[in-house]
Amino acid sequence: MYAGQKVPIQNVSPCPVSCSLENWGHKGSPLFWFCNTFYTIRLASHFFFKPLYIKPLPLSVLAPAHPYFAQALLEWYPRHRRDLPWRHTRDPYAIWLSEVILQQTRVKQGLPYYLDFVTTYPTVHDLAAAAEDEVLRHWQGLGYYSRARNMHHTAQQVVREYDGLFPNTYHDLLKLRGVGQYTAAAIASFAFGEKVAVLDGNVYRVLSRVFGITSDIAAPAPRKEFQALADTLIPAAAPDEFNQAIMEFGAIQCTPLKPDCLFCPLQSQCYAFQHGMVQELPVKSKAKAGRTRYFHYLVLRYGDTLYLKKRGPKDIWQGLYDFALTETDAAELPAAELVDIVAALGGQLTTNRAEEPVVSLRHVLSHQKVEARFYPVWLEHPLSSQALAASGLAPFTLEQAHKLPKPILIANYIDKSQK
Active-site residues: which are they? Predict the structure, then answer.
């Protein structure tokens, strides 16, 4: 669904002297301050005077009305793009790694992980041959660990079924495990120059604002609407450059909360700017509030031995290591219950050590919040082989525990307890 337009937006100028970034000159010039003041007044007026809704325009009218949309982005991109390592390669493996790592992850956070992976696993064969625990250990701290597991399986699939060579078309890339429409489009475009438009959060935001699309981007149905528009706009001559440009534009110019509308090359075309709807677009329904879970960890220790267990499937942190866990509906665990749990695990509390403080940590995930309490438990004797088999726990030295793949919550506790 497209918001209506009072006038053709390509003919609307935000300033009576038709200012642009090129003719504003230095920020200290009188012309700049005149335009800046005019822009501020105009933007403020949008909060008080909303335009009337006019009949929406269809895609067939909107996309051809902006033949210079791609040109504006392609001119903007070389001057403003960030220097990122995956932009200096056509290697589909390196591009694929970057796309998987950057899903749900900011560039600043993902960059060191990318550099670590391409150094540790320089080829898809190296990644495929690695143990899953090792891959998860390198992924530790990024969250969404299913991405790491799928990435590992995909590497093995590429080696097993494609002799270590990534498929070179969008449709064949979709056959790889864990590769969805966005990732397939990115690899096909950036590595092989295929004319297929990418859709990520940045692209949704730019298209919503410039073209006045009011469809809820959190719903699955509007994807076809956005994809059709993006496919119409992408130029055949430089599809990879266009995809990089529109994503970068959304990341650093047309940002979610504080877009730089003042210096935007699409300002005169932008429906959201012209109609005071920059903060309203894109439309995205809020996700349901996540639940709160209460984790009580028993940090069982005997001498230099620390007991941990590998988490099973069908819950968060699959395949990662944590301590003996009891989950309850309350934030507190009575002392008597703590003793009973230790006894059930086959352990006996020692009386030769002073009581250590309980540590509380919080970890927020996308769909739930974990309130964790860590109870240091020193044992009188090591756990028997029968107790280990029944509980799933295994003994590790502190050095070994540091090398295990763990949720960041557990890693933070271990680091905190050593200080």
Answer: 99
